[in-house]
Amino acid sequence: MRCKTRYCNSTCQHDHWRRGHKQICKKIHRGGNAEQYHADNKYKEAVKEAVEKCVADKKGQKCYICLEAVYPRTGEGLVRGCACGDRDGVSSPELGVVHVSCLAEQAKILFAEAEEHNLGVKARYEGFQRWDSCSLCEQKYHGVVYHALGWACWKTYVGRPEGDQIRRMPMGQIGRGLSAASHHTDASTVQEAQLSMLRRIGGSEEILAVQANLAITYQSLGRLEQTLSLLRDVYLGYVKLYGEEHKNALISANNYAASIFALQRFQEAKSLLGKIIPVARRVLGGSDPTTLRMRLNCGWALYIDVGATLSNLREAVTTLEDTERTARHVLGNSHPTVEAVGMHLQNERASLCTRM
Hints:
Blueprint: H1 10-18, H2 21-30, H3 33-54, E1 86-87, E2 90-91, H4 100-116, H5 121-129, H6 143-157, H7 165-180, H8 184-201, H9 204-220, H10 224-242, H11 247-262, H12 266-283, H13 289-304, H14 310-331, H15 336-355
Antiparallel strand pairs: 1-2
Helix pairs in contact: 2-3, 3-6, 4-5, 4-6, 6-7, 7-8, 7-9, 8-9, 9-10, 10-11, 11-12, 11-13, 12-13, 13-14, 13-15, 14-15
């Protein structure tokens, strides 16, 4: 197989070949060609980052899947990025401790079984869920663990054809994982490429999902007007497809409200949240993560407005106190949503004290 690397000029080409181009190309070819080689390396980097972030509270513990402290084949350490052992006000640090490689192998096997035995859409979906959600507590992984699983998922299915949905889904998970690990510029690159691909091959609902993820990444990068435009389109798109009470429509409505809020259009954001929170409570339930994020945004909007009254501040504190209790019970103490609620609650209590 001939290399297709393009150089700016012959001098650059000769210099690169002198520095070992042939050896690099052979290594990439043995690793399954460029995409697979890149995915494998990114996975190793992401696992290393996840293990380093989780190392402090994992000493003396073992993986709940393989029952080993160190992953036998690679020497990989332990992580935990879900709600296991971290809910209901009781910390059980031994629960949910695992190797990323064990989670990846578990997800790979479950999905392969569903696919091989033609078990239907529901079984395939449940199998694929193991790539981003814990089988014990059923909550999505977060932060660096989600990031590492995104690369694990991508390297598993990258060899499939471009039009295959099981190749497209991991691409979305990489983008979300990069954002979860605060690699927002890299996330935007992946999500823009995914959006371009989907527009080329089609898929209206998938396009909406990728637009939503890209908008959230743009918000993290401070590109607020682009965020607002994308999220408005996503919200209206889901309403057109499913109606205002569908879960995806509610999630996109909350994201849209947050983007309005980020531009300091507080009254507009509060009006939209006041409309969708009762619907979310009825359709999703008061303890659903989406409902909790809506209530977080509502509490924040109540006190950050420069025109907030003393009554607004009291309502904000009450809202966030109730949200925090429920979120800790459902998501665990270390979940990003719980941490955000706690931070805003502290700020709102301080604001209330200065006004009384």
